[in-house]
Specification:
single chain; 496 residues; alpha+beta; 16 helices; globular
């Protein structure tokens, strides 16, 4: 559904009913309905209630409590966008990156706002710092000033109330980074604060000074320029090969299947001699998101195999280990439906019979668990492979550059790359992901949102639940992540 259509539908409903409150009431009802359905679906089929351990505690604590908090806010929902915000709030409270509620219409996007004060903040070294001031703006703090408080609230308290679960997970470094520009913006979320009226800023070691925060007229491009000056944004072409300072620099800023992998892999194969040479290379995984139906962890493993060879990487790939399934009819139906689609596709039958066989085994395991009245069952995944003794074909050092945008399939790829010799992970802390994997997607009753969640538990994953990759101190970039020249110069020093 397009954003234009949602706006048009809004206008039609307001005209038809004539009472302004009727439209808001309609979205309030839709929000309540979708919240309840999301709750019921997760309660019935998500693995967490049946899997012991710390990874499930947050789910159990939030499932009912979060529903009540969200329902209490439903009377303030007055549009499709605020409906999306409220569903995002409920999903975000699980602190599970694989539980998401996404609008089915074109959302606001990262550069949206209805007002701003002419400056923007970023998350820098554990503080909210002014990162951008519009040229010519008056009465604003200076770039580099630290935000101390807003609306007489300590900045941590203010940020939690305004951003946490609405714009990102402030329990994570990545969530802080990507949501920080919105600290001063009004994103048209009626469920939380807009622009603050007054904030206190500290310059260097001086005493904090109070400044009134006044809205500045928005000009097209203002918010995009401010965001891009604060948070690294990937190029329009996410995959590519470049030579910088005599070394190959591989750009992998997406794990989406549609990113253009055929041409990129061909370019990698043509330069494999340089990649394996003594000078080393850079593998740039900044903003390399990879989750959902249209992305594949296999892309990262395929790239590693092209550079290091499958014979070398196979023994270093993390074992799949045990996978725990919650034995519910809904989960069985999902696998049975997937199996039917696979078997009906002649090409898939020809090319991927092993996947079909595996899925048949999973469906049969569901039936066996039902017969035995077992709430869960566990299947063993691919075991670890013994070292083949193959020599490392890559002679030089390898820098893998990451940031807060590295998520999903990017993290799975790091699970392999981090075990390869002469590989160093550099940059800034990545996103996190949960052990509840392989998302299933369900349309919610309003038709405005889709619920997705991981419906099996990777209980033996070596990397703990919600654990990011954090570069070592000497490999941590502390400068402006949006200053590409500075980033490249810094990466160059890592090879010295």
């Amino acid at each position: 559904m397009s954003r234009f259509l949602s706006v048009a539908a809004t206008a039609a409903l307001v005209v038809a009913v004539s009472a302004g409150s009727a439209f808001a009431q309609d979205f309030r009802a839709l929000a309540r309905q979708d919240l309840q359905r999301a709750h019921d679906e997760l309660a019935a089929n998500h693995p967490a209630p049946a899997v012991p351990g710390a990874a499930s505690q947050g789910f159990r604590a939030w499932l009912d409590t979060g529903l009540q908090e969200a329902l209490a806010l439903a009377p303030r929902v007055n549009s499709g966008d605020s409906h999306a915000y409220l569903l995002r709030f409920y999903a975000g409270g699980f602190r599970d990156s694989n539980i998401r509620v996404s609008p089915t219409f074109e959302g606001m996007g990262p550069f949206f706002g209805i007002s701003w004060p002419g400056f923007t903040t970023g998350w820098r070294n554990g503080r909210y710092v002014v990162t951008y001031v519009k040229p010519g703006a008056r009465g604003t703090p200076r770039v580099g000033d630290v935000v101390v408080e807003c609306n007489a609230m300590p900045i941590e308290e203010f940020a939690r109330a305004k951003l946490d679960r609405w714009e990102g997970n402030l329990d994570t470094e990545a969530g802080r980074v990507t949501s920080a520009p919105y600290l001063m913006w009004n994103r048209n979320n009626p469920l939380t604060a807009g622009m603050p009226s007054q904030c206190s800023f500290q310059s260097g070691r001086g005493r904090p000074r109070d400044l009134p925060i006044r809205p500045m007229p928005l000009v097209a491009g203002d918010l995009e320029a401010a965001y891009r000056a604060t948070v690294y944004m990937p190029p329009a072409t996410p995959l590519g090969v470049e030579t910088i300072n005599g070394r190959p620099w591989l750009h992998v800023h997406s794990f989406a299947d549609s990113a253009g992998w055929a041409a990129f892999n061909n370019a990698v194969e043509q330069q494999v001699a340089s990649l394996r040479g003594p000078l080393g290379f850079v593998l740039d995984l900044r903003a390399a998101s990879g989750s959902g139906e249209n992305s594949s962890t296999a892309r990262g493993y395929g790239l590693a195999n092209r550079i290091w060879t499958p014979e070398f990487t196979v023994s270093r790939q993390p074992a799949a280990g045990d996978i725990t399934y919650r034995a519910t009819q809904g989960n069985r139906d999902w696998y049975a439906g997937a199996l039917a689609r696979m078997e009906a596709d002649p090409y898939f039958v020809q090319e991927s019979m092993s996947v079909i066989v595996q899925t048949r085994e999973i469906v049969a395991a569901f039936d066996a668990a039902f017969a035995a009245r077992q709430p869960t069952f566990t299947l063993a995944g691919r075991p670890a492979v013994a070292d083949t003794g193959a020599a490392n074909p890559v002679q030089g050092p390898v820098i893998v550059l990451v940031d807060a945008g590295c998520s999903g399939g990017c993290l799975d790829t790091l699970d392999l790359l981090s075990k390869l010799p002469n590989v160093r992970i550099a940059g800034s802390t990545t996103a996190t992901d949960s052990i509840f994997v392989e998302p299933t997607v369900e349309r919610l009753p309003s038709n405005y949102s889709d619920l997705s969640y991981g419906h099996k538990a990777w209980t033996s994953r070596p990397r703990a639940n919600n654990q990011p990759y954090t570069p070592a101190p000497g490999l941590t970039y502390t400068g402006n992540p949006a200053d590409e020249a500075a980033v490249r110069a810094w990466v160059g020093t890592l090879f010295q």
